[in-house]
Amino acid sequence: MKIAKLKTQFNPANVEIAIRKLLFLARNNADEYAKQRLMPIVRDLIQTVVIGKTPGHQPASLQVHGSIANIMASMEVLDLMEQQFIAAAQNDLMAKIASGEIDTEQKQKKLLDAYAEELSVKRLEWVNIQVSVVAGAGFEPAAFRL
Predict the structure, then answer these.
(1) Cα-based distances in Å from 22 to 17, 51, 53, 79
(2) Domain housing 133
(3) pLDDT tens-digit readout, 46-72
(4) pTM value?
(5) Residues 30 and 38 sit within 8 Å (Cβ to Cβ)
(6) Mind listing the pLDDT tens digit for each residue in 75-120?
């Protein structure tokens, strides 16, 4: 599945590790030619990083602006949309069971299969999702449309 692959590929923890490795290699192990080729890629992904103060002895807050923030916001929106669909499907299933409409395991299996098929179709639609992030809002999506 494309979305599952993207989720693992652009998982925020994986992205952070990859960026740290990339920057470490660029600073410490790369020759000048490699650094010159690598830095435009990093600059394209990360336009600015804003370091903010936090109360007490907490680590500083970071806000990342650039393509990487859009990628992470897109993944967050996909997760939220999937969670909303699953919650709605669970509510629908419970309502149908309570009303007596679903009274056999066969009917329940048929309905669950229909939900799974609908989710698969929606995931394909969601691949083309567009997300905007608001400056200063970190990774939180401001608006999205299909």
Answers:
(1) 8, 20, 26, 27
(2) 2-145
(3) 778 788 888 888 887 777 777 777 777
(4) 0.51
(5) yes
(6) 778 888 889 999 999 999 999 999 999 999 999 999 999 999 999 8
Please report, for residues 26, 27, 85, 87, the alpha-carbon distance to residue 102 in angstroms, rounded to integers and kept in the order given.
60, 62, 20, 18
List, in order, residues 6 or more apart from 3 with CB less than 8 Å away. Answer: 78, 123, 126, 127
Helix (H/G/I), strand (E/B), else coil: 145: strand
Rounded Cα distance, 63 and 50, in Å = 5
DSSP β-bridge partners for residue 47: none
Residues sharing a CB contact under 8 Å with residue 27, sequence separation 6 or more, in sequence order: none
State how far the Cα of 135 lies from the Cα of 137, in Å rounded to an integer.
6
Judge whether 72 and 94 are in contact, CB under 8 Å: no
The tally of domains found in the chain comes to: 1
- The amino acid present at 111, given as its one-letter code, is L
